[in-house]
């Protein structure tokens, strides 16, 4: 519809002009004033929580997901790794250096599965009402699950390849505005410095999207784990040590990563990135996201054949799932 196109264009122009505007002025849910910038009007978060997120770009909610749900997801992950259930369409990532799987003899370790919507048990996590009521504070009422994964950080064999370089998730995303996007990450067990907890740079969500590339780590890094190239090594870091069920909500520009896993166990977390269904897609050609677009296109060509021509936006469009409210963009 012409009016839709106009609206998309207007938002696109605004976004280009002010890519990291801290105030989601286009949203009817945004509230002007000093204290609320990154969060929609809501009755769930306390003023302290709102201020904390605005200042730091993340918010941890203790014990949000119950142990029995997380145990069920862990069990399902094991079943998938063992090959007892086949999940068509799910992306299974093998680790760059870990030879031994925790479940299947003679198989490389699976460090991550993606596209949880392909499995009804794991996708339940993305639809949990206890999570979505928080997500709504960031995205507004129409919510799409854009990207989901279960991360199984293996014990590091001394190569430091289990680290996740510091990055901003928005780098991977061709949709905007950033203020209508939120990452959600739940510890499936106690996660601390020793097994590679998340590390964040508080307040970095107020900056812009920085250049990313593969880090020049001696022993390599996992596929698509790009990191920020230049940043101040003295930036204060906060290590998010979390109990099982604790859940962090974070802004897509927040600089974060995770350390190596110095324990013998595989460290598990489950995560989903959500966006408002009103978000619009951008063309990343000519921007500092072009290299990741290219890499993901290469993965698609390898998986489905070089003749398959799908735009980067469509890659994301087809993987998104409406989990609450309505999709008024189509
Ligand atoms: O779990 C990790 O180690 C990193 C996860 C991450 O970067 C994310 O969920 O965006
Ligand atoms: Fe991330």
Characterization of the model:
With 330 residues, the chain is of the alpha+beta class. The chain has 7 helices and 16 strands. The longest helix is centred in the N-terminal third of the chain and has 16 residues, at 2-17. The radius of gyration is 19 Å and the shape is globular. Fe (ii) ion binds next to loops.
Topology, please?
Layout: H1 2-17, H2 47-56, E1 58-61, H3 67-82, E2 91-94, E3 110-114, H4 120-127, H5 129-139, E4 143-153, E5 164-167, E6 175-176, E7 181-187, E8 198-200, E9 212-213, E10 227-228, E11 238-240, E12 247-250, E13 256-258, E14 267-276, E15 280-281, H6 290-304, H7 312-319, E16 321-324
Antiparallel strand pairs: 1-12, 2-3, 3-4, 4-14, 4-16, 5-13, 6-15, 7-12, 7-14, 8-11, 8-13, 9-10
Radius of gyration: 19 Å
Count of helical segments?
Answer: 7
Portion in strands: 15-25%
Tell me the structural class: alpha+beta
Poorly predicted sequence stretches spanning 5 or more consecutive residues: 1-36
How many distinct beta strands? 16
Distance between the termini: 9 Å
Work out the helicity level.
Answer: 25-40%
- Overall shape: globular
> In sequence order, what are the helices and strands, one letter per element?
HHEHEEHHEEEEEEEEEEEEHHE
Tell me the major beta sheet. Answer: 8 strands, antiparallel
Mean pLDDT: 85
| Distinct bound molecules | 2-oxoglutaric acid, fe (ii) ion
Pathway: Lipid metabolism; fatty acid metabolism
Organism: Holothuria leucospilota
Family: Belongs to the PhyH family.
Cofactor: Fe cation; L-ascorbate
